[in-house]
Structures are given as C-alpha cells and as structure tokens.
Design goal:
It is built from 19 helices and 14 strands. It has 458 residues and is α/β, with parallel strands linked by helices. The chain starts with 5 loop residues before the first strand and ends with a helix.
Length: 458
Amino acid sequence: MSARYNVLVVDDEVKMQRILEIMLRDMQIDVVRAGDGKAALEVLAREAVDLVITDLRMPVMDGIALVKALHDAGQTTPVIVITAHGTIESAVTAMKHGAVDYIMRPFEVETVELAVRRALSLGRMSRENRFLRATLAQDWHEFIGRSPPMQDLYSLIAQVGPTGVSVLVAGETGTGKELVARAIHTASGRAGLFVALNCAGIPETLLESELFGHVRGAFTGAQAERVGKFEMSDGGTLFLDEITEMPIALQTRLLRVLQERTIERIGSNRSIALDLRVIAATNRDPKQAVAERALREDVYYRLNGLRIDVPPLRARGDDIVLLAEHFLATHARKFGKPAPALNAVARALLHAHAWPGNVRELEHLMGRAALLAPATAIDAVLARELGPLPAASAGHAAAPDDMPEDADLRLQPQVDALERRLILRALERAEGNKAKAARALEISERTLWYKLKKFDLS
C-alpha cells in the first residue's frame, strides 16, 4: 500500500488477533489490538485509526454494539466485521448500522486483503469527500471564473443541489463535469459519499460487478463478496461519467435501479433498498446519443431530471486568463519557482487558442510553461506550444504595415477594437438576431449581452 495505515483489530481471541496482525503487517499496515468493543472505544479515543476490524461475538461489548456506538458518535472510520457461519443476519445488521463489509470465518488471506484494501480506499474517499464539502462551502473555491456562463452555472448548482432530482451534466472533454457533480452533491447536504465511476474506463465484463457488487462464488474468480458502487453511494451520490459508454444491456439494469431504488448483487436474490442520487455525464450530445442508440431513451429521460451544460473554455472570455494565472501559480509552487508573468502577448495567445481540450488542456500547458518559462514572461513558450498569434486575433485594428507611426501600440485596446468590429459584423449578418450572432461567434448569448454592454453597443 502506498500510504502507511493504522488498523484496529478487535477480537476476544488472542490467537485471531495475532493472525490478523500478521496478515496486516505483511501489507505494510500498522496494527493496534483490543479484546472487546469497550476497549476498542478507549483506543479510538486516544489515537487515529484508519480502519476497524471487529469480531461480532465478544464479551463486555460485542461487534454490533461497537458499530452502533461508532455510528452514534459520528465516527466515520470504516468497519469490517468478522462472522462465523450461521451469523450472516448479524453481519447484515452490523452493516445497516455502518459497517462497510464483512468477512466469513474461516477465511483466506486474499479475502482479508481485498476487504481491507477496499475499506481503506472507501475511508480515503470519505475523507476527500468531507474535505471537498468543507472547501466548497467556502463560496465556490473549487471553481475559478467570473464570466456570465459560469455565473449561470453557479446559480444552477445552487438551485438543483438541494432538490434531489437526477441531473445530466453535458459538456466537452476537459470542461470539469465531475467538479460540477461534486458541487451538486455538496449543495445537496446528503450525508453519504460522493462515488464516481467512469463507464468508459472499465471493461464491459467488469462494469456490472463494479456497479452492483457480487456474492462469493457468483462467477469464476469471485472468491469474496464485493460491495458495488451503488451500495457505496447509499445515502449519497453516484456519479456515472461517460454514461453513453455503458453497454445497452447494462443500461436496462440501471433503469430498474432508477425506477425502484433497489439492487441485487450478482449471484444473489436478496433485494437491497437504496437511498441515492444519480448524476450522469457525457461529452456527447445526449439526444444524438439516443438517436445513435448509444443511450436508451428511457434512461435518458430518467437521468435528465435537469440538464446542466458546462460551458467550453473558449466561451468563458477572461476566465481563460484567471485560470491560467491560477494554474501557473500552482505549478510554480510545486517546482519551487516564481510564477511567470502573463504579458499582453501571452494573454492574446491564450484568447486566440480554440482550446479543444478545455480546462484540462490549459492546466497541462501551464504546467509546462511554469517549468520551462523564465520568471519575467512566458509568451515565447506559449507561442512555441500554441503556434504564432493569428493575424485575425493579434489584436491589431489594422495590419501592422498599414498602421500610422503614432498608432497606439498597446495590445488590449487593439484586441477590444477587433472584438467590437467582429460583434458588429455578426449582428449585421444575423440581421440583429442576438441568438444567431452568438452562435456565429461561438459564445453564449449571455456572453454576447455582456460584451454589448462592455462596448456600449446595447
């Protein structure tokens, strides 16, 4: 394991404590032991623990009482319970009170390792989720941008967050769709986890198990029970990224979950009731995906309680420079260097680029610029990466050879003059129709209104 974890083993049998300790130390995990639930609570009161593994049947305080006590105290430390044959119902009861998994005795080493890794990963996700919730509660700190399209986005998130409706987030690759989904979850106030799954990043043969989980022996290689993403997100939010990449057959099962809010693990006939919110995302036009049969129409309508379109970077105006400065500062700190300055030429280069990779492309570019550029300016690096500044975007009101000797050489006024003329030309071609003019300029209508006011054209 990459990080050093600390696991509390709770069992009244010293031999079992020792067996689990040996297994965990072989995984490079630190171990602390307790003989019953009461002793475990004393340990938890004095030191940080990443995971609790507890037997169910113990004197003084048994495993179920321990799980309930942790739940009632607001403890978020994941708990795995160990149960002997014949006590499955007790294990299920423990899971209803907050345990994340259970291990049957006698068990194999691989079963313990798998359950421990999954629980530690779940605990890490929970901590990251709480950190994100605290951060976003501080006024959109995870978002950078003041442009009209982003203001519209913030407003939508604030409105839809508390409602609980399903949301379909659409936008080009690299626009930040998962960040939007996380913000919706935070605004919802749901106590459960935010669980993300990229439907395009998992082989089709494994995706069903990843979503629904499975029981031991459900198929070849299923040596232990597995909790799927649906169960992990119970009480919280499940984010299905690239939903159009989910196989149609699996979309049928997803539809049933959306309708009935119950699942069955693969190989099991037991229904599990869920309280979860589903947010899906796609970088394709959802209606086109339906037409092409990449997305079931009934699934589309179930997911599309509200659609949120994340604006592409090229439609966000001066946000491009704000983001570039943020990424430059972040990467410069990482490299132990001062952040390079964005001079007028660099800003013009950033505005002129089409950004097919959107915010992700800009972040990677600024990382390279922070590493390679001198502290004074980065225009040479950007010109090398993005190509020379096009004449039509260079910010000149006239070609350099046609400019008078005493012309204003400041770049921004020339850029504004060109932008003003382009807007007037678009409005002329659109016969005053602002929606058509905005489409021709490849900006949102709200952005066009903002620029009309800026250039005193309204």
